[in-house]
Amino acid sequence: MHESEVDLNRLVVFTALVEAGSFTAAAQRLGTTKSRVSQQLAALETELGVTLVLRTTRRMALTSAGEQFHADSMHLLDEARAAIARVGAARHRPSGLLRVTAAGDYGPAVIAPALASFKHAYPQIEIDLVVTDRIADPIAEHFDLSIRIGWLRNSSLRAARLAAFRQCLVAAPAYLSERGAPTHPRDLAAHDWIALSALRSPLRWTFASQRGTRTTVRLHTTLQTNNTLTVQAFVRAGAGLSVLPDYLVDEDLRTGRLVQVLPRHRLPDGGIFAVYPGREPPAKVRAFIEHLRQHLATPS
Prior knowledge:
The protein is an alpha+beta fold. The protein has 9 helices and 15 strands. The protein is rod-shaped, with a radius of gyration of 32 Å.
């Protein structure tokens, strides 16, 4: 007999029989028939290769093997019930370690403050924020949540849309003073462009005018980087124009450190998504998604 040959579901029938004291009472407790209880016990004894219960027409009694097996079975079932209770608690009460990954610009600028206030609201939660510009695999890398920016690719993962962001064409005042400000998207071809190489098409952009007219331009660059914060640093230094998300440049625009270029032409808005594995996320993930959604909706 191998452990895999034993149907563990029969343990429930066996322990119910011992606790009820008779086949009739056990059947009533389990919501089945007396013959079904008897069949399950017989099958269990066959699988184990031992007699667990001695039974006559009037009474039943455990053998010594049955008494030991009952004690061991109760221990196993108690552990199983405790495990189920722990899973249920995690389903309804935020707890444990929350592992989050976010992009190199968005993580420090937005997710870190949101996680700090979330930690204050749920002090029992432990937090691990991993900042990376590559697309992490939540399943393989054991992340509870991945915050993704832009446009989602097809994925078997679940996603919740949290908010949107504007794409802003910006330049430093010194650059515009030297090179002049473009008045139409077609003028961008004559300007120095700072490309974010992590994008699918870093040199191809489609602008929409206020009338809805769309203009697609292809740019050239002698300066590129794989990091959004570095693009921002290059633009601030007057090295050229580029497109940056509003959450990164709003302060620069308010202070005049950067200037919005072609304000009458708009680029498509991007999305901010919470991506997670599994159909039913645990309470800690649901709670943070809701917290982050409120955080993003609150003006800074």
